[in-house]
Design goal:
Ribosomal Protein S5, domain 2, eight-stranded mixed beta sheet, four-stranded antiparallel beta sheet, 10 helices
Length: 403
C-alpha cells in the first residue's frame, strides 16, 4: 500500500456502567490494518488452524445482502473485543459486492471507500492461512453509513467470504463467522485512518451468509434460521437530531454509539435482558417455525420498549418518540412487523399485504419524506452468492446448522 504520514495512535477511555455495582473503564486502542497484536488467531476461539500457502490465480465476485439487526439479547455479554450477547436479525435485498483476484505477489491492493477495514481482514486471512500470495480486491457497499444498515459488518463479511472462496473455502461458515467476530473492528471516530475494536453478536454474518431471519445465542452461535418468503421491506432513515450527515458517517449517531452500548443500554439489559431472551425462546421461535410474521411482529414490538433496545431508540431524541412514532405508523397502517435496526435510527416495516405496503408508501409521500431516505425492497432468503466463470453458487449445500 502507498505510504502516508499518520497521526500517533491514541487510546479512547470510556466509563462503563452495567449497574450500581458494575463500573469500570473500557479502553479502546487505535491500531493500523494488520497490526499483529490486534489480530486474534483461530486457535484462540476454538477454530482449527488451516494452511493455504499458495493458490492458482483465480478471480470471483461475491454479493451479500445487508443485515437488519432487530435486537441484541443482552449487552452485558459483549464488549469491544469480546463477542456475544445474542440477537435477532434478517437480510434484505440491499447488497455489498466484492471482487477478489488472487495474485502470486504478496501485495494487497484494495479499491474501496472502506479501505482500512478491507485491508485489515485481507491481512488477517493472509496471516492465519500462511498464504504467501496476495490479493486484488474491489468492494462496494450501499454507502448508507452509521445509520443501522450494517455497512461495516457487510463490508467485512463480503471481503472475508470472497477471500475464503478464492482460497478454496478453507473455513466453514461457522468458522468464518468466528474469525470475523473475534477480529471485528471499525474505523476510529478520530478520522485518523486507524481502526478500533467494535461490538459483534454475529447476527450480521449469519443473516448475510444464510439470508432469511436468524436468531443468535451467545458466542456467535446460530440457534435458528427461517426464510421469510414473499415479504416486502420498507426501509426508512428518519430525519432525527442524532443524524446530521448519514451518507459519509460524519457527525452521526456513531460518535456516541460506544458510550450508549457501554452505559445506559448495558444497565437496562441488567434489569430486562432476561425478558428479551424469554420472549425470543417462548414466543418468537415458535412463531418463526409456524411462519407467522404477525406473531413475530408482536414480539419485536414488545422488545422495542425494553432493555437495551429502549436505550437505542431513546438516543434519537424525545425519549424515543422520534423512532416510536414510525414504528407505530407502520403497525397502524398494517405492517405485520416493524423494528429499528441496530443503534438506528433506520426503521424497517415488513409486510406480505399489498394493501398495507401501498398505505405505507402513500403515507410517506403525503408526509413529504425525501425519496433518498426510503428504500423499497424485500427480505433476501438466499444469502451470499458467488459468481465465478459464469457459474453461480450459494451456501445452501453447507446449511446454516452445519458445525
Amino acid at each position: 500500500m502507498k505510504e502516508q504520514t499518520k497521526l500517533a495512535q491514541t487510546k479512547i477511555e470510556i466509563e462503563t456502567i452495567g449497574g450500581p455495582f458494575d463500573r469500570i473503564t473500557s479502553v479502546l486502542e487505535e491500531f493500523e490494518p494488520g497490526q499483529p497484536e490486534f489480530v486474534v488467531l483461530p486457535e484462540e476461539f476454538g477454530v482449527q488452524p488451516r494452511t493455504v500457502s499458495s493458490c492458482p490465480e483465480r478471480q470471483l465476485e461475491v454479493e451479500i445482502p445487508t443485515r437488519i439487526h432487530a435486537t441484541v439479547l443482552d449487552m452485558n455479554r459483549f464488549n469491544a473485543g469480546k463477542c456475544g450477547g445474542g440477537g435477532v436479525g434478517f437480510a434484505v435485498k440491499l447488497y455489498h459486492r466484492c471482487k477478489v483476484r488472487t495474485i502470486p505477489e504478496p501485495e494487497i491492493h484494495v479499491d474501496s471507500k472502506r479501505m482500512p477495514l478491507v485491508e485489515h481482514f485481507a491481512l488477517i486471512m493472509k496471516r492465519i492461512l500462511q498464504y504467501q500470495g496476495g490479493f486484488e480486491i474491489e468492494l462496494s457497499d450501499h454507502e448508507r453509513r452509521h445509520v443501522g444498515l450494517g455497512s461495516s459488518s457487510g463490508t467485512i463479511c463480503a471481503a472475508c467470504v470472497a477471500i475464503n472462496e478464492a482460497l478454496g473455502r478453507p473455513f466453514s461458515n461457522r468458522e468464518l463467522r468466528r474469525i470475523i467476530g473475534y477480529n471485528f473492528c471499525e474505523e476510529s471516530p478520530t478520522g485518523s485512518g486507524y481502526l478500533i475494536r467494535a461490538f459483534q453478536t454475529g447476527v450480521g454474518a449469519m443473516a448475510s451468509i444464510h439470508g432469511g431471519w436468524v436468531v443468535a445465542s451467545d458466542d456467535l452461535e446460530l440457534v435458528y434460521r427461517v426464510p421469510l418468503p414473499n415479504t416486502k421491506a420498507i426501509i426508512l432513515i428518519p430525519d432525527v437530531p442524532s443524524l446530521k450527515n448519514e451518507y459519509n458517517g460524519q457527525s452521526t449517531s456513531a460518535s456516541s454509539e460506544v458510550e450508549l452500548l457501554l452505559r445506559r443500554a448495558r444497565y437496562l439489559d441488567t434489569r430486562q435482558g432476561y425478558e428479551k431472551a424469554f420472549l425470543v425462546l417462548l414466543d418468537l421461535i415458535p412463531a418463526m417455525i409456524k411462519g407467522d410474521l404477525e406473531a413475530m411482529g408482536k414480539v419485536m414490538l414488545d422488545v422495542s420498549f425494553i432493555g437495551s433496545k429502549r436505550a437505542e431508540c431513546e438516543q434519537h431524541g424525545l425519549y424515543g418518540a422520534n423512532v416510536y412514532y414510525w414504528l407505530g405508523v407502520f403497525k397502524q397502517l398494517g405492517a405485520e412487523l416493524a423494528a429499528m435496526s441496530s443503534v438506528g435510527p433506520t426503521v424497517v416495516a415488513l409486510t406480505r399485504r399489498a394493501d398495507a405496503y401501498d398505505r405505507i408508501m402513500s403515507f410517506l409521500k403525503e408526509k413529504n419524506v425525501p425519496a433518498s431516505r426510503v428504500i423499497e425492497t424485500e427480505v433476501d432468503n438466499v444469502g451470499a452468492v458467488i459468481h465465478e466463470n459464469g457459474v453461480t453458487r450459494t451456501f445452501e449445500a453447507e446449511g446454516w446448522g452445519k458445525i
